Structures are given as C-alpha cells and as structure tokens.
## 1
Amino acid sequence: MVAYVVNASGLANDPTKYTPNGLPTSADTLTIGAFTLTIPSGYTLDVGAITMTGTGVGARSQITINGGGKLKQNSSMTLNTYNRIHWSGGGIAEWEV
C-alpha cells in the first residue's frame, strides 16, 4: 500500500500530480488537498481510501469525472463541507465497500 497525496491540480492519469510520483491502485490511499483532480475520458481511477481535506471555498478539494471517465473507490471516503465530486457529461463513480 502506498499513501499518495495530490500535489497539484491536473489529470488523474498524470503520475507527476502525486507524491510520490506514480499512479494509485486499488490497494493505495489518496489524499487530496486544495486541488482539483480530473478523471479524463477513457481512464479509471481505481483507488482504495480517499480523504479530501479542503478547508474553504477558495481551498476546495474536488474530483471531476469527465464523460467516459470512471472513479472506482474501494474503501472509505472522508470529506467535509468544502469538498466536491463533480460529474461532467456522463462520468461514472462506483463505490465498493
């Protein structure tokens, strides 16, 4: 298991957007601070636990699922009032608990 942290807004399939560099898998955890992680068409972000740590309107955590993209989350998800999951044009989210 690797504990990935999103280090900048961008595409979920870009390994440079994570610390450490790489792409999370279903066995890994993912923490998103005040950034937007976008899942592009044709890509599935398949990850274990997700924690979204946005702290305000100007510092939101957001996951945007574009049409043809998919979020598959395999464990717990922790978020608060300032965090968003946004579907754009037919994106899919799947939770397996």
## 2
Amino acid sequence: MEEAEHQHSEIPLATKDTVKKIFAGKLYDSQSQRLLPRQLITVSSDTGLILSVGNYNEADERALDVILSTTRDTQDVIDLRKCTVMPGFVDAHVHRK
C-alpha cells in the first residue's frame, strides 16, 4: 500500500451505532510486510466489515484522549495505541473421525 493511501485528516471518531474506530499503534500490512505506525481502522458495527484503514493524526489522538477521559460510553472506539494489530488467523481445517 502506498503511504499516500494512508493519509486522513479531520476524521470523525464515530457515528453512533454505525461504525467503530480502532486506534492501532502499529498495524501489520501483509502486502508490504511492514508495520505501519498510527493506523485508524474503521469497522461497520452492522456487518463487522473493515470500511477503511489509514493514518490518524495528533488531532484525532487528542480527540480520543478527551473522549476516553470524559465519557463512560466508549464502545465506539477501541484504544490499541500501545499495541500492534495483525490480521486475524483462522484455523479452517477439519479432522474427520
């Protein structure tokens, strides 16, 4: 993925009951085989599908800090800024008896 594809600005944190925002400190990109820093993953609350992935900026991070420090209802945001996020691993094989 090109670095320019990961640029976002003025990203709204969440629209109630529509999307979840995951703030990842690092995200493993299997196509480039790199860890991408400061990634914002937007997920549909209805379908669970990833809607977008891109950089979050300092303004987004400050807004997240305000939400986390002033609101009890933080179900629309997931703070993984100190974590590395990797794609899910699925064990799809079956053992027949």
